[in-house]
């Protein structure tokens, strides 16, 4: 659960289950393995309680309470401030200790390969891991502990000024740091293409590149954030606001409708092209296209092969059931598309955090 200050104790588990966990520790998050994580409450809540207590004390004093009560109030204020100071010091000491793991990494960075900063429940982090795995790049993942504030370590903030995951360091390019998942995916496929001459998960055609970019930006700006907000208002917001849950869930459905239509058009074109002996019957409507042997054949958003435009959706597609959307029933083409990608060995490896 979450309060107004971003503190929470949450206990969601199972495949890619937790998204958008608060303000202070905010990250779009979700997980592929069974995990439990608990966020401490205290400092911010105490600030509010202290403020309320202080206001009451001042009001009591102004309303003519006797000297004994005034002294009691003054002592309460002093005690409260001292407790607050101790808590701040404890948090500062904890942060200093926990940052040591991050500091040590930056002092001894690898000479080659990639380092991915992610979180055990971050779909955008798994998105990058999927592409790294598909391209066969050597990489290591550092799963940051938001509870311990590792995403606020100065060294990590120097990599990602937004202090969020994912972030990537390309050690082969003088420790180049890239942040924002879409930018990372584009860097990886372009680098692979430049080094190998093979546009794997990408395209050597400018028109196709523009379409891949369009779908990628659609996913990062319209798909993921809407799912994140739907999950936030359903599970983590301090108050139940039915209109907010409905608004974001409806928007997720609208987004999936866009993807469903695009994939359905690709499906129809593929069936008509490959199933020539039955094409006339499909066109006339006398035979359902679902009877074609190519009806479950994989189709992709751009061209006739898998690209980052497709893979970017995978981790988020795995969590929409948590907001009451059943893609198998409501969006059958999206379901088939996702199923084909989820069966890929590189995707399985990445989602397992290997």
Automatic annotation (TrEMBL):
Binding-site residues, glutathione: 124, 151, 164-165, 180-181
InterPro entries: Glutathione-S-Trfase_C-like, Glutathione-S-Trfase_C_sf, Glutathione_S-Trfase, Glutathione_S-Trfase_N, GST_C, Thioredoxin-like_sf, Ure2
Domain GST N-terminal: start-end pairs: 112-196
GO biological process, one term: intracellular protein localization
Gene3D superfamilies assigned to the protein according to its UniProt record, in alphabetical order: 1.20.1050.10, Glutaredoxin
Record's compositionally biased regions (Polar residues): 22-42
Compositionally biased residues, Low complexity: 43-71
Start and end residues of each stretch annotated as Disordered: 22-75
Record key words, sorted: Nitrate assimilation
Record flagged with keyword Protein biosynthesis: no
GO MF term list: transcription corepressor activity
Annotated Pfam families: GST_C, GST_N
Ranges for domain GST C-terminal: 205-354
Job description of the protein: Plays an important role in the cellular response to the nitrogen source.
Homology family: Belongs to the GST superfamily.
Subunit structure: Homodimer.
The protein's name: Protein URE2
